[in-house]
Specification:
This protein is mainly α and 272 residues long. The chain is built from eleven helices and no strands.
């Protein structure tokens, strides 16, 4: 159980999930150095997610869950991981990738990430607190760094891959809704998250519909998806996880199972 908490609460697992998508997509593109993309995406995700945890630690007024208790008990570890992630992503990027086009894309992701949880002043609103947009910011950030950046970096057109990109966005979007369900009692009603707007039942319907759309987009790109064990496992498993999502589920249900299930989608692309 210690290992599972460590992987989930340290954000190493979610960083591996993002890296798996980057690896799968860049391998699909037949780039020469997919592992370099993996290192940048893994490091950037590790930095970003731990930065958000650091910035929001002061908002934890109670021990809501195992995750909150873990965060309050390991502040130095979070800072260390954030530093490692930032150093890794910057070192690999500026040694191997630096280009104007990709700097624009990654700069936009960096701007979103920095202002997602950061308040310049106590009376300011962070991006995640702006009504309606919290879940979409997450999906857009993943899409930019895992799909758009490699295409820009390799100077490839986006149009031939729009179905894969949209499918990936919808898969991550679907995987994010269970977290909005979990956080509905903590998020301010003014944030207008999907569970606030339509309730838990319809949130699950929206997540399931997005997941189904993601699958059919991928199928229309290549029917091989029907013979891809990783994709079939990813879609079936995430659908069941969404179906059985409850606010009282253990924290590892979300931070380990739901987050970790994204890895199957990344592995699936690798075998298209």
């Amino acid at each position: 159980m210690f290992i599972l908490r460590f992987l989930a609460f340290s954000n190493i697992l979610i960083s591996l999930a993002a890296a798996s998508i980057a690896y799968g997509f860049t391998t699909h593109l037949n780039v020469d150095t997919p592992l370099l993309y993996v290192l940048v995406v893994f490091g950037a995700t590790l930095f970003t997610y731990n930065l958000h945890r650091i910035l929001r630690r002061r908002e934890i007024k109670q021990d809501y869950s195992d995750r909150h208790r873990w965060l309050t008990q390991h502040p130095l570890f979070l800072r260390t991981l954030a530093g490692i992630g930032l150093t890794l992503s910057i070192a690999v990027y500026f040694r191997s990738f630096i280009a104007v086009e990709s700097l624009i894309v990654l700069g936009l992701v960096g701007l979103i990430s920095a202002t997602y949880a950061l308040k310049i002043r106590a009376d300011c609103t962070s991006l995640r607190e702006i009504p309606y947009i919290k879940i979409y910011l997450i999906g857009v950030s993943w899409t930019l760094v895992c799909f758009v950046w490699p295409l820009f970096q390799e100077q490839l057109p986006i149009t031939p891959y729009w179905k894969i990109i949209t499918s990936g966005f919808l898969f991550v979007f679907s995987a994010t809704i269970p977290f909005d369900i979990r956080d509905a009692i903590y998020d301010a009603p003014e944030q207008k998250t999907i569970p606030h707007l339509v309730g838990i039942k319809w949130s699950k319907i929206i997540a399931g519909s997005s997941l189904l759309t993601s699958f059919f987009l991928l199928f229309s790109y290549t029917p091989q998806v029907l013979h891809n064990t990783f994709f079939l496992t990813g879609y079936t498993g995430l659908f069941l996880l969404i179906l059985f999502t409850k606010q009282r589920n253990p924290e590892l249900y979300f931070s380990f199972l739901v987050d970790g299930w994204i890895v199957f989608w990344g592995l699936g692309i690798n075998f298209l």
